Automatic annotation (TrEMBL):
It comes from Marivita hallyeonensis. It holds the Pfam family Ldh_2. GO terms for molecular function: oxidoreductase activity. This is Malate/lactate/ureidoglycolate dehydrogenase, LDH2 family. Keywords: Oxidoreductase. Residues 305-328 are annotated as: Disordered. Belongs to the LDH2/MDH2 oxidoreductase family. InterPro entries: Mal/L-sulf/L-lact_DH-like_ah, Mal/L-sulf/L-lact_DH-like_NADP, Mal/L-sulfo/L-lacto_DH-like_sf, Malate/L-lactate_DH-like. Residues 313-324 have a biased composition (Basic and acidic residues).
Amino acid sequence: MPEAVNTSPEALRGFASNVFRSLGVPDTDAAKVAGLMVEADAYGYDTHGVFRLRQYVARLREGGCNPTPDIRVVAERDATALIDGDDGLGHLAMMAACDLAMNKARSAGIGWVGIRRGNHAGPAALYVRPQTEVGMIGLCAAVGSANHVPPFGGTELLLGTNPIAVGAPSSSVDPFILDMATTVAAMGKIKTLAQRGEQMPEGWMVGRDGRPLTDPQRKDEGFLLPIGGPKGFGLSVAIGLLAGTLNGAAFGSDVVDFTKHPEKSSNTGQFVAAIDISAFVDPDLFESSVERIFNQMRDVAPLPDHPAVRLPGDGKSERRKSVETDGIALHPKLRAELDKIASEVGVPPPT
């Protein structure tokens, strides 16, 4: 197997933009989505960056994704709004929701914006980091783009990975960024291992016989396990209510597998929220208190043979900075897939 080749973020952004434009996406939208996909890779969310390009291409080709959506606000109050994504690329509706939530938080103290008729939009972390950069707290969650989880103790797939993210500013270089699925592992990680021909650890999935499943190529024969057993199941249901049902979006058996059915509208539901810290406490006091508490946690002596304590988000800023000079490492099989996409749509491959 050849070694991974580092590719500059600029080259990847240009390549992804060209792919989208070749499929009818307007220039501004293509550049915006491509930029967010590469940001995902730059921050280390490589299961939700350019790795997802194949799925987006399929949905644009087959009709499940609208290349020229009319993204609009369909319901609004002082602190809340509902956006209709018109089946467009999910990143577009999510960024619109993020911007609107922050604007509402500036005047109302909090902004909560739901989305219906969205699409897969990459990692939830992308939509809470902007809040931290302006001194706000961010919150984001989504109904997973396919059902891979049964109700706890059952066997029928009625839940997705239903991710949630929380971001908060601190006075250190890295904001607090928690981005997690409500399953032990995200399906994107399993798809990445399948592409690379690697096995997954026990505890991520089980077969319908209840036994551990470790071959990612057989992922359709079993289901993902929720974090914390029934607690993760309950959290996933709560997210489904807030991001799906509350917005008139899909949840439960209404969820469309966006990979298996690229021709269908997924009616993906999401929400983005922003909280203005100054509505509760002095922002400088909040950030300094957060940093003091976090440093106490980082200074705790680790268990034997365990690395030092880290907080969610630690090291992300340094990683993002390093890829501008070192580039983003693409696994050979991912690079081959991107080259294949380039050939199919008639654009130059990333160089």
